[in-house]
Write a structure and sequence with these properties.
The complex is a heterodimer of chains A (848) and B (235).
Chain A: H1 3-17, H2 24-34, E1 38-42, H3 49-72, H4 78-95, E2 103-106, H5 110-126, E3 133-136, H6 142-150, E4 155-158, H7 160-167, H8 172-175, E5 181-184, H9 187-190, H10 194-209, E6 214-219, H11 225-233, E7 241-245, E8 252-256, H12 276-285, E9 289-292, H13 296-309, E10 317-320, H14 326-337, E11 343-346, E12 361-365, H15 371-378, E13 389-394, H16 399-413, H17 426-438, H18 444-452, H19 462-474, E14 489-491, E15 494-496, H20 500-510, E16 518-523, E17 528-533, H21 534-538, E18 545-548, E19 551-559, E20 562-567, H22 587-601, H23 607-612, H24 614-623, E21 631-639, E22 642-648, H25 653-670, E23 676-679, E24 684-688, H26 699-702, H27 708-715, H28 718-732, H29 754-764, H30 769-782, H31 785-796, E25 799-804, H32 810-821, H33 826-843
Parallel strand pairs in A: 1-6, 1-7, 2-4, 2-5, 3-4, 5-6, 8-13, 9-11, 9-12, 10-11, 12-13, 16-20, 21-25
Antiparallel strand pairs in A: 14-15, 16-17, 18-19, 19-20, 21-22, 22-24, 23-24
Helix pairs in contact in A: 1-3, 2-3, 3-4, 7-10, 12-13, 15-16, 16-22, 17-19, 17-20, 25-27, 25-31, 28-29, 28-30
Chain B: E1 2-3, E2 11-15, E3 18-23, E4 27-30, E5 35-38, H1 45-51, H2 60-75, E6 79-82, H3 95-107, E7 112-116, H4 125-130, E8 134-136, E9 140-142, E10 145-147, H5 154-159, E11 167-170, E12 175-182, E13 185-194, E14 198-200, E15 211-212, E16 220-225, E17 228-232
Parallel strand pairs in B: 5-6, 6-7, 7-8, 10-11, 11-14, 12-15
Antiparallel strand pairs in B: 1-17, 2-3, 3-4, 4-5, 9-10, 12-13, 13-14, 13-16, 16-17
Classes of the chains: A alpha/beta (848), B alpha/beta (235).
Amino acid sequence: MSDRQRALDHVETWFRNRGETPFPFQRRAWRSFLRGNHGLVHSATGSGKTLAAFLGVVMDHLSHDSELARKSTTTDVGDAVSQDGFKSAAALRKRRNASQIRVLWLTPLRSLASDIEENLRIVCNELGLGWHVETRTGDTPSSIRQRQSKAYPEVLITTPESCSLMLSYADTQTRFSELKLIVVDEWHELLGSKRGVQVELALARIRSLCPNVRIWGLSATLGNTTEALETLLGSDGLLSFELIEGASKKKLKIEAMLPDKAERFPWSGHIGTQLASRVAEIVLASKSCLVFTNTRAQTEIWYRSLLAVAPELVGQMAAHHGSLDQKLRWWIEDNLRSGKLRCCVCTSSLDLGVDFSHVDQVIQIGSPKGAARLLQRAGRSGHAPGKTSKLTFVPTNSMEIIEYVGLTDGIVSKTLECRPPLKQPIDVLTQHCVTIALGGGFVADELLQEVRRTAAYRNLSDEQWQWTLDFIQRGGDSLVAYPDFKRVQMVDGRYTLVDRRLAARHRMSIGTIVSDASIHVQYLNGARLGTVEESFLAKIKVGDKFMLGGKTITLVKLYDNTAYVKRATGSVTAIPRWMGGRMPLSNELSQAIRSRLDQASHGQLQGKEMRWLKPLLRAQEQSSAIPAWNELLVERLKNRDGHYLFFYPFDGRLVHEGLAAIIAHRLSNIEPMTFSLTMNDYGFALVSSKEVPVAWMNHHTLFSDKNLEADILGSLNATEMGKRQFKEIARVSNLVFQGYPGQKKLSRHLQASSNLFYDVFQNYDPGNLLLRQAETEVLDQQLQLERIRNSLARIQTSKLVVQSLAKPSPFSFGLIVDRMRERVSSESLGDRVRQMQERLEKDTVWTH
Amino acid sequence: MDALNSDCKRMKLMLEGTSIHLLPERAVWLPQMNAVCIADTHFGKAATFRLAGLAVPEGTTTAMLKRIDKLVAETGAETLIVLGDFTHSGKVAARDYVDELVAWRDSNMGLNIVLVLGNHDRHSRGLIERLAFHIVQEGERFGQVELRHFPNSTTADSLNPQGNTCLVLSGHLHPGCAIAVAPKVWKKFPCFVLGQTQIILPAFGEFTGLAQVDRTPFQRIIACVEDELIEIDPV
């Protein structure tokens, strides 16, 4: 029996003793690793990816160490050899002076690390490996970090930031000398973000230090797996790799909670809590239940409404989102894990793989805007191989039922969302170069080769590289070399960072890619509640009541980046809104919706959800039209507010924002006029005081992609958008350092806002690549230029269907309400909308 | 928001018997004293940042000196009053801006420069001596006005106008206010804060931040928007 076979048997026996059998995809992953491959395991949440990635390296280790063992114990035969052999192998390892890291496990969230640590430790102990499993993240106390840098654990679990931080120490090479495997967990979460690029650079670095290391990514539900794998491994053609498709046949039960009656005139955000008692029924019928909402504000609202209809949930229910204090979140997660909490209302903060085995039901409030996210969330229930995931979808308006149908279509046809990776963000590169300069220094050409091996920077030009080097060495390119500037210096031909204060500040700033300006909220006695964004607090006055983590509190004072609060009773003045709450419709979902509408335009309503929507669709057809696949519906309406023009490309809010601005810009080029713009995920509205002639509705000129960029920049407040985008860039490239929330800032005379930097660059160094980056990010990410271009191309070949409305159509109703919303307070909005709905219903005779 | 009816380029006031012109260049012109007054130039701030490894391009010093020269030439002032924080940090002697300041001073020795020492000036006494400024104490009377770096408490100023019989000019705060430049797009601008007996000047320096001021019923806020002055509607 070969050593390898023996190792395999050992692992298989361990599985049997647990009463399980390995899944075929797990076996495939192990074999692939043992053949020396890199790879990506793409499999549903909770299907056993962790073991697929981990046990390959374990077997490799077992087969080598048993060889060592046999040399030292010559007499034993058969099974006894291996059992005994492993023990002495463990002893042998202990005799070594210092252990080395063998497996580096990267996870996007700190909160996941402890969970993985626990799982892997059990595996290591039960297999008798004698391996230590430890975590090293921003939360790890410095005493433990000190110990770790003296004696490394064999398995180290860490975040991308902490991994980069390790690269900033000069002993990196010795730390990783025994490294065999790097696992990048939840790669789909990192892909498409700057943290993903940070990982790409770190991987390229580690591969240069230890060429034999193998890289395995783990990803759930993703549309572009091949691209994900290529991005993970970089553009090095010599690597052998394998894409392991896992058990996708996780049993899934998804259903929509249909309100009793479909409204003909839907508007967003109001149905939700009317269904609270039905949601509470499901919660009470389940063992443990997660209620996902799309925004942190919704989380607070639903927590209150559920308590109101089911007071018996007091003490068994919690609210969880990213702005709550870490300790509070840990407490909630622990109690979910142990099954003590019946229900938790949460945001994407609980999207990722923490294993809550007690959760048997997931409720999704509002459209998750993408099939991948729906699957991910459904997978939070029945989170174990073989169990069924159950999800109930609760619409917040009738139109969301079409989205739900589109989502399930996507799941059936397996057209999941792609996450396109980012291309060469200069800010992340400057940060990385300083990190490497700090971790022992670098020779420019060598580092360039390494950087170009990553997918993100494979097309980095020589000029861009030179600018990056100049930026960290001189502050600006050779023409505007900044006097007295020093960060990275040339020492013996190597770019090196020697200044200790600069080093300390750089290390602190590595972790700040994700954090935004936030303010701590804490009780007067010091207990911390969480954070809110500065912009929210700016609107809160002392004495105002607001909610955080399901608790009603009132602001006492604001001092030194901390909001001091005390408990309060009574109704709240405000619920914090955090940025980034609105997720745009995914491209794939937008297509699925248009396809369902196409069917409806031909009179086909398939499935009970579409039939439930019949009154709405019929009303749309009677008052206007339902657009077929190759049509773009345009509606015209005149009311007290002015002349409305509605367009329905169904391309998602972000794209509509850009499209609306472009169309308004082009119309006003024909004849000067002013428009106000409103958009949602289905379409956009232009409102003007003058009527736009039908003859102008020429889609070849209005929707042309000629001069697109110029028109966008001319029509939107691009400078202001660029400034906002520059905030993050300035943080990543270490121009501004805000410190962590609650921590003291650096010496005050070195504080300047990113706005000041933006202005001073604009005036004195306009060639600065970081400014260019802000511009590109605005176009590509905020405005989604590529999707706008695709959308225009599609509309060019579509037929324009222009309808003149006598009264608002169901599609237009939501946009009209959104426009009202900007001008009236939320209380009176509900009343006014109901009046409008009643009027519309009364004035019209609907045929069924 | 209401543009001033008269000349947008300057705003003429009479406070405590003193005639004052607010200028959109973030300066005050005192015709009776033939003096122009600015605050918080923070010379050397960019250089201090560069020394600390923060990349700030060069050029702010030159640009600021040119703006001062232009201001003096256009007003024909004999005296330049600086209400503190002329320099940003004296601990680091960054050569470039020191040399530039000395050369600039050598070329305009005819100009009388009066400085109230600000909190940032503590560490650059040596440089300030080299520049041959006339140093006055915090709250010292100069001609018809009282010069301060730190403003008098705004409530005390607005509620108890007794005590002071002359106009106070001060700086330190870097007051700024937000104006909607497009729907939902707010931009911050430096501004003057006018109390009953006190004017707080905006920071003259380019690479300096702004502190948003709260509007109170007793104050007027006049923003410097490019080359115009715009008064913000009272609350």
